[in-house]
Amino acid sequence: MAQTKKPEKMMSEKVLHFTGKNTDLNKLTQKIVSGLNSEGYKTQVANTPAGTVIQAKKAGVLRDIITADRCFTIMISGQPNDFTVHVGIGRWIENIAIAAAETLLLTWLFLVVDIPEMAWTTEVEKTIVREITQAVG
Q1: Cα 91 from chain centroid?
Q2: What is the pLDDT of residues 45-89, one digit of tens each?
Q3: pTM over 0.85
Q4: Which helix (H) or strand (E) holds 73?
Q5: Helices (H) and strands (E) in the chain, counts
Q6: Domains of the chain (ranges plus CATH)?
Q7: Rounded to an integer, what distance in angstroms lies between the CA atom of residue 126 and that of residue 104?
Q8: Is 35 or 3 the better-scoring residue by pLDDT?
Protein backbone atom coordinates (compact mmCIF):
# COMPACT_ATOMS: atom_id res chain seq x y z
CA MET A 1 0.00 0.00 0.00
CA ALA A 2 1.55 3.30 -1.08
CA GLN A 3 1.53 6.14 1.37
CA THR A 4 0.95 9.67 0.22
CA LYS A 5 3.73 11.99 1.21
CA LYS A 6 2.71 15.08 3.16
CA PRO A 7 4.10 18.36 1.88
CA GLU A 8 7.35 19.29 3.53
CA LYS A 9 7.29 22.13 6.02
CA MET A 10 10.08 24.41 7.16
CA MET A 11 10.50 27.25 9.60
CA SER A 12 10.42 30.44 7.64
CA GLU A 13 12.57 32.90 9.52
CA LYS A 14 15.73 34.86 8.78
CA VAL A 15 17.67 36.29 11.72
CA LEU A 16 19.99 39.30 11.43
CA HIS A 17 22.19 40.31 14.37
CA PHE A 18 23.89 43.71 14.49
CA THR A 19 26.51 44.89 16.99
CA GLY A 20 28.31 48.20 17.38
CA LYS A 21 26.00 50.09 14.99
CA ASN A 22 24.49 52.58 17.49
CA THR A 23 21.21 52.46 15.55
CA ASP A 24 18.11 54.32 16.71
CA LEU A 25 15.68 51.37 16.71
CA ASN A 26 12.61 53.63 16.54
CA LYS A 27 13.97 55.32 13.41
CA LEU A 28 14.86 51.92 11.95
CA THR A 29 11.29 50.76 12.58
CA GLN A 30 9.91 53.91 10.92
CA LYS A 31 12.21 53.44 7.93
CA ILE A 32 11.17 49.79 7.49
CA VAL A 33 7.46 50.66 7.77
CA SER A 34 7.82 53.57 5.36
CA GLY A 35 9.60 51.37 2.84
CA LEU A 36 6.98 48.63 3.08
CA ASN A 37 4.15 51.16 2.74
CA SER A 38 5.79 52.67 -0.34
CA GLU A 39 5.87 49.18 -1.88
CA GLY A 40 2.11 48.79 -1.37
CA TYR A 41 2.08 46.77 1.85
CA LYS A 42 -0.52 47.33 4.55
CA THR A 43 1.45 47.57 7.81
CA GLN A 44 0.85 47.59 11.52
CA VAL A 45 3.31 48.02 14.41
CA ALA A 46 3.25 47.02 18.07
CA ASN A 47 5.75 47.61 20.84
CA THR A 48 5.87 44.58 23.12
CA PRO A 49 8.10 43.57 26.03
CA ALA A 50 9.92 41.26 23.58
CA GLY A 51 10.58 44.04 21.03
CA THR A 52 8.90 45.90 18.19
CA VAL A 53 6.76 43.81 15.87
CA ILE A 54 6.00 44.98 12.33
CA GLN A 55 3.47 43.10 10.26
CA ALA A 56 2.98 43.72 6.55
CA LYS A 57 0.71 42.14 3.99
CA LYS A 58 -0.06 42.70 0.36
CA ALA A 59 -3.53 41.24 -0.01
CA GLY A 60 -3.32 40.28 -3.68
CA VAL A 61 0.06 38.58 -3.46
CA LEU A 62 -0.66 36.76 -0.22
CA ARG A 63 -4.13 35.69 -1.31
CA ASP A 64 -2.70 34.11 -4.47
CA ILE A 65 0.30 32.41 -2.87
CA ILE A 66 -0.42 31.70 0.78
CA THR A 67 -3.28 31.77 3.27
CA ALA A 68 -4.90 35.20 3.58
CA ASP A 69 -4.32 35.40 7.35
CA ARG A 70 -0.56 35.24 6.88
CA CYS A 71 1.76 38.17 6.58
CA PHE A 72 5.35 39.20 6.47
CA THR A 73 6.52 39.69 10.09
CA ILE A 74 9.57 41.57 11.34
CA MET A 75 10.59 41.74 15.00
CA ILE A 76 13.30 44.10 16.23
CA SER A 77 14.69 43.50 19.71
CA GLY A 78 17.69 44.60 21.72
CA GLN A 79 19.63 47.82 22.22
CA PRO A 80 21.10 50.30 19.70
CA ASN A 81 24.55 48.65 19.82
CA ASP A 82 23.36 45.04 20.03
CA PHE A 83 20.07 44.16 18.35
CA THR A 84 18.42 41.37 16.39
CA VAL A 85 15.96 41.54 13.52
CA HIS A 86 13.81 38.47 12.80
CA VAL A 87 12.15 38.34 9.37
CA GLY A 88 9.62 35.75 8.18
CA ILE A 89 6.01 34.72 7.67
CA GLY A 90 3.60 35.05 10.56
CA ARG A 91 -0.09 35.09 11.31
CA TRP A 92 -1.77 38.49 10.77
CA ILE A 93 -3.05 39.69 14.14
CA GLU A 94 -5.89 42.18 13.71
CA ASN A 95 -5.24 45.49 15.45
CA ILE A 96 -1.82 44.42 16.63
CA ALA A 97 -1.20 47.84 18.20
CA ILE A 98 -4.02 47.34 20.68
CA ALA A 99 -3.60 43.59 21.21
CA ALA A 100 -2.59 42.59 24.73
CA ALA A 101 1.14 41.92 25.15
CA GLU A 102 0.26 38.49 26.56
CA THR A 103 -1.51 37.60 23.33
CA LEU A 104 1.52 38.54 21.24
CA LEU A 105 3.86 36.57 23.43
CA LEU A 106 1.66 33.48 23.23
CA THR A 107 1.02 33.77 19.49
CA TRP A 108 3.58 32.31 17.11
CA LEU A 109 5.02 35.31 15.32
CA PHE A 110 6.84 33.12 12.84
CA LEU A 111 5.15 30.09 11.33
CA VAL A 112 6.18 26.80 9.86
CA VAL A 113 5.26 26.94 6.18
CA ASP A 114 4.90 24.60 3.22
CA ILE A 115 7.64 24.44 0.60
CA PRO A 116 5.64 26.47 -2.01
CA GLU A 117 5.37 29.32 0.50
CA MET A 118 9.14 29.21 1.00
CA ALA A 119 9.75 30.38 -2.57
CA TRP A 120 7.65 33.49 -1.96
CA THR A 121 9.19 34.09 1.46
CA THR A 122 12.74 33.70 0.18
CA GLU A 123 12.14 36.24 -2.57
CA VAL A 124 10.54 38.80 -0.25
CA GLU A 125 13.12 38.18 2.49
CA LYS A 126 15.97 38.92 0.09
CA THR A 127 14.50 42.33 -0.66
CA ILE A 128 13.55 43.22 2.92
CA VAL A 129 16.79 41.89 4.44
CA ARG A 130 18.83 43.88 1.91
CA GLU A 131 16.86 47.05 2.75
CA ILE A 132 17.23 46.53 6.51
CA THR A 133 20.97 45.86 6.20
CA GLN A 134 21.39 49.04 4.10
CA ALA A 135 19.34 51.07 6.61
CA VAL A 136 21.51 49.92 9.50
CA GLY A 137 24.70 50.66 7.58
Answers
A1: 10
A2: 988 888 899 998 876 654 555 556 778 889 999 999 999 999 887
A3: no
A4: strand 70-79
A5: 4, 7
A6: 11-131 (3.30.530)
A7: 26
A8: 35
